Recover the amino acids of this structure.
């Protein structure tokens, strides 16, 4: 019984370990996307290091150089980047 | 006896080490020969590759220089263009940019916004309503192209090279009022 429990716990750990990377990859892709968007708007950033989801298509991005931006898609279909204090 | 065996082993080891030491320099001597031969052909090349450098410098000046130098350089690439690379029209370019995984969703929307802004400027220019000059438009166009290429060149080199080869053709479509009007229709 103990052996079964140990095996179950081990397999759960393995599954959890395997499940994390895709989400991490998504996060990295989003950071890369927002980094490119901020750069395309000609704003200083360097690299987005943290992203908070404010709403659908609405993010708060923190840059490596400590600049913070709100990046969102407005009703007209334009991507807007607003510097935050 | 053990000492004698040990001494024999030492002698053998030293002998092997000497043999290796003697054999090592041989490849070192042999290696430089091809190295010295390889540089030799390169001085011969400049005669043959003259057409190649003529192609390579052509795109570079277009990026930084305004309309007049670029316009003078349009003619030579057109003569050489049919051979090298496939070109894209605007619709194909849009589709390829939509499909590529090299850039993210927000980046694609941002690029689309900036393309639309540039098209608005062209429209105003062709209608005589804009204060911008063709040189300004060319500069904006080159800047946008550089942005697109810098986003694509690492992860979708095929599309990036296709865009590079289509650069002048797309500019021609935008700069000519008649073809621009057909694009808008």
């Amino acid at each position: 019984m103990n052996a079964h429990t140990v095996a179950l716990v081990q397999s759960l750990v393995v599954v959890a370990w395997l499940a994390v990377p895709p989400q991490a990859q998504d996060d990295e892709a989003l950071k890369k996307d927002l980094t490119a968007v901020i750069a395309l708007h000609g704003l200083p950033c360097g690299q987005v290091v943290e992203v908070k989801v404010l709403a659908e298509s609405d993010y708060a991005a923190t840059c490596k150089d400590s600049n913070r931006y709100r990046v969102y898609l407005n009703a007209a279909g334009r991507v807007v980047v607003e510097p935050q204090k | 006896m053990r000492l004698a065996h040990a001494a024999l082993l030492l002698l053998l080891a030293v002998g092997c080490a000497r043999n290796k030491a003697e054999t090592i320099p041989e490849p070192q001597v042999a290696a430089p020969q091809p190295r010295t031969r390889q540089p030799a052909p390169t001085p011969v090349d400049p005669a043959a590759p003259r057409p190649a450098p003529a192609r390579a410098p052509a795109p570079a000046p277009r990026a930084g220089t305004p309309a007049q130098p670029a316009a003078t350089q349009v003619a030579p690439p057109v003569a050489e263009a049919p051979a090298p690379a496939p070109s894209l029209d605007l619709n194909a370019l849009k589709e390829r940019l939509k499909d590529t995984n090299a850039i993210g969703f927000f980046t694609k929307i941002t690029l689309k916004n900036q393309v639309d802004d540039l098209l608005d400027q062209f429209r105003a220019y062709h209608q005589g309503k804009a204060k911008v000059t063709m040189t300004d438009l060319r500069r904006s166009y080159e800047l946008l192209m550089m942005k697109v290429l810098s986003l694509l060149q690492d992860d979708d080199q095929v599309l990036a090279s296709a865009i590079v080869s289509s650069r002048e053709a797309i500019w021609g479509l935008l700069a000519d009022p008649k073809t621009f009007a057909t694009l808008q229709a």
In short: The radius of gyration of chain A is 19 Å. The beta strands of chain A are 48-55, 58-63, 68-73, 79-84.
